[in-house]
Design a protein that fits this description.
This protein has two domains: about 130 residues, Rossmann fold (3-Layer(aba) Sandwich); about 110 residues, 3-Layer(aba) Sandwich (Rossmann fold), CATH 3.40.50. Helices cover about 40% and strands about 15% of the residues. The protein is built from twelve helices and nine strands. Helix 1 links the parallel strand 1 and strand 2.
């Protein structure tokens, strides 16, 4: 089912899907903006990461996750995983009886709303699957930007999953990927894991660039479509995982005080 141009104000329960723990950064933004009174989170921790996998496999995993969410009376689904957003949205929408939203279009719209000059240097960071789809780069080019770099720093995902948010391992990895780049004016963090190391990424460059990440982008996107009519004072969060759900809940306790 293709989502409508706006979300009904009666919708109060959202499903959030990610390949692992990274999508909790999107949940954190949804909680902060109080857009829903119930959030169902599912992390496919048994098969993380999705980024190195081929599009057909990513789509198959996403459709299996969709079957999980059909057990809940959700009003809409957010695919927090950029790799899923890049490759599986049409199939998800065709098989769902509720709206399904990705995070790539909101990320591009968030960049547009920052009113940067067309000559600004834009750096997109994402998994190989996300960058390989070309969706960020083509969407940003349509905004009139002419200086776009897209990079897949794949080692950062397992580093974040290990909880290494700073220190020599992270710094060495950032240097490995960024040492030859011209300093960007803005960076799109096109993987839900990357906001957890946003400070390290931004501070690597002499002048800290503007950082855009999926959680704030999707919250901004939903609000621009007229949701919510009022903030929800009480938020219920349920967390599920394909493997080690207790481990994922511990991460949620640390990241979003769940």
């Amino acid at each position: 089912m293709k989502p409508s141009s706006s979300i009904s104000n009666a919708s109060t329960k959202v499903g959030v899907f990610d390949s692992g723990a990274g999508g909790l950064t999107v949940v954190k933004s949804l909680v902060a903006h109080r857009l829903f009174d119930e959030i169902i989170y599912y992390g496919d921790t048994a098969r993380v990461p999705y980024g190195p996998k081929d599009p057909a496999t990513i789509t198959r995993y996403a459709l299996e996750a969709l079957e999980f969410f059909k057990n809940f009376d959700i009003d809409l689904l957010i695919t927090a995983c950029n790799s899923v957003s890049a490759h599986a949205l049409p199939e998800l929408r065709a098989n769902a009886n509720f709206p399904v939203y990705g995070v790539i279009e909101p990320g591009i719209m968030a960049l547009k709303n920052r009113h940067l000059s067309p000559e600004s240097r834009i750096l997109v960071l994402g998994t190989r699957a996300t960058i390989g789809s070309g969706r960020y780069k083509s969407g940003i080019a349509k905004l009139g930007f002419t200086n776009i770099e897209a990079l897949a720093p794949s080692l950062l995902v397992p580093i974040v999953e290990e909880g290494l948010f700073d220190g020599p391992v992270l710094q060495s990895t950032l240097h490995h990927y960024f040492k030859d780049l011209q300093p960007p004016d803005a960076i799109i963090l096109g993987c839900t894991h990357f906001p957890l190391i946003a400070d390290a990424i931004g501070n690597y460059f002499p002048n800290t660039p503007l950082l855009i990440h999926s959680g704030e982008a999707i919250a901004e996107y939903l609000q621009s479509h007229g949701y919510p009519a009022q903030a929800h004072p009480e938020i219920r969060l349920e967390i599920f995982a394909s493997e080690n759900p207790d481990g994922l809940k511990k991460i949620a306790q640390k990241w979003i005080n769940y």
